[in-house]
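Teaching soon. Got one?

===
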Amino acid sequence: MTSTEQKGIVRWGLVGAAGIAGRSFLPGLQAAGRGRAVVVGSRDAERGAAFAKEYGVERSVVGYEEVVTSPDVDAVYVALANVEHAEWTARALEAGKPVLCEKPLVSDAEQAERVVAAAKSTAPGLLWEACQFVYRSQHRRVLDLIADGAIGAPREVISAFQVEIDRPGDFRMAPVGGGSLADVGCYSLRLGEEILGRATGDPLYAAGRMEGGIDVDVAGIVGLDRGRLYLTCGFRRGFDVFARILGQEGQIHLTSPFHPGPDATLTLLRPRQEAVVEHAAGDDPAYQGVAEHIHGVLLDGNPPEHLVVDTAVSTARTLDALRAAVIAHPLPE
């Protein structure tokens, strides 16, 4: 029996005092139960102390090494700038800690290979990416409908995630943020992979626009094991998020596939039948589902789901290829 199982609680260490850690991860952790944040690491001592006080973390430390190696930390949540995810995820894994890393897991395929090597060296390689929608009830409902044959065999996923960024100095518009593919396009790719399997090679088509070395507008077609993903993402038009899953015998339309609130709808469309509309179940904190899942794995011995050890490299290569195609085939202004 592990020390975690003996205590009946998962002690979390936070690498980074980012806003998403306080506003999103910690409310989900609290709602999930059976876990608590025992330490947060920050490069700035004052910022770390203020974060710990505001969000009820037991202590703060300067830097991240103590977080990933501390014997009183059972699991690590990485919430740094995108370019730092790989280093500290790998170091936490090498220290024997299960890791939940913010999306995107890595910035490129080379980083993915390092992280996967670290995970595989610390069996069973407990590494999750915080695409939290895959742990929520709406996504499980989609998978159940597909498994039950509600739309026949799925063949295509169409997904958009657009946000308008006009605030000067927004980190998403800097190299540390990684651009629209890393920030929002990764959601559509993850959804496509969930439904249709991994990418089979370079994108079938991609084009877009770059600004200051950052992709700000992307449209692409990606071949997956069992079909195609059509995605669009960007930072230059109003908020627009939806997904459609097209099968041989019907379609599923989602008005909010990635952050569903109580107003989000799932519509099942089948030929010559009346549309069936369902609403998302409740407005539970976004990270509650993933925290509950990880606690179940660590405390109850439940089988882990949605681990990214087997998919991280192919996913990163696909995002790299999409970005390279945008650079090679810019859309007109």
Summary: The chain has a mean pLDDT of 93. The chain has ten helices and 14 strands. The first strand starts at residue 10 and ends at 15. The longest helix spans residues 180-196.
